[in-house]
Amino acid sequence: MQMQRELARAVRLEDAFAKPPQLVAGIDTAFLGDEAVTACVVANYPSMTECEVQSLLSRLDSPYIPTFLAFREGPAIEDVMERLSANVDVFLLNAQGIAHPRRCGCATQVGVETGKSTIGVTQNRLYGKSDREPSVEGDAVALTADGEQVGWILMSHAASKPIYVSPGHLVSLSSSLDLVKGCLRGHRLPEPLQMAHALANRERTRLSHERSGPLFR
User: Is this model's pTM higher than 0.90 or not?
Assistant: First the structure.
């Protein structure tokens, strides 16, 4: 908890990437027993064409504890980031940014520890409140906590529930929303994160099938 508070003090909510960005990456995790498949997909911006993929299988050394996700998934996320050859401008993580009780979700912690621009994009609210819910596709509502804005509630797809966007590190509140909107391509999640989600699940399925074969029976 103290570590998170110290990292939160180092957060910079200002843009530290090229405008417009050239490469945006999504990172997501799928679970296989006590192991995790961490997948990263790098896409050109704004075309969203895939240009690099990486995936990593790792053992989970920490249990899942709400608000401490970075200690469970963060090391593998940082590892897969280091394996990239592409010079990514911004990373979209399936995690919270500053929309967190101590302003230090996994996207924030990873951003501060790596010095990379990060944005948290999740399908569930962890922290914060709003005056209303977004009502139409493209509508965004401020997510606030303790009198400060910590993110956005975005209706990314008319047929889906909203998503929650919060800057992690080296990204401003306004740019976190603009960039996520710029990556939407007809899915609930922004495209790099949608592709990373699909890759993580494909790898989990492949590994599961391999391990259920004759050699593992």
Answer: yes
Residue 217: C-alpha distances to residues 34, 41, 102 (Å): 19, 33, 46
Question: For residue 83, what are its two tokens?
Answer: 């394996």
- What residue ranges define each of the domains in the chain, with the CATH number in brackets? 2-125+164-198 (3.30.2170.10)
Please give the Cα distance from 116 to 56 (Å, whole number).
Answer: 19
Residues ≥6 apart with Cβ < 8 Å to 91? 24, 25, 26, 27, 81, 107, 110, 111, 116, 117, 118, 119, 168
Instruction: Work out the angle at residue 55's Cα, subtended by the Cα atoms of residues 24 and 30, and round it to the nearest 5 degrees.
Output: 95
CA distance 169 to 184: 21
Are the C-beta atoms of residues 166 and 99 closer than 8 Å to each other? yes
27's tokens: 């990172």
Question: CA-to-CA distance for 89 and 74, rounded, in angstroms?
Answer: 19
Q: 181, 206, 199: which is closest to 24 by C-alpha?
A: 181
Give Rg (Cα) of the chain: 17
What residues pair up with 93 in beta bridges, in sequence order?
27, 120
What is the structure's pLDDT at 215?
42
Query: Any residues with CB less than 8 A from the CB of 19 and at least 6 apart, and which?
Result: none
Residue 209: partners with Cβ closer than 8 Å, 6 or more residues away = none
pLDDT single digits (tens) 34-84: 999 999 999 999 999 999 999 999 998 888 888 888 888 999 999 999 999
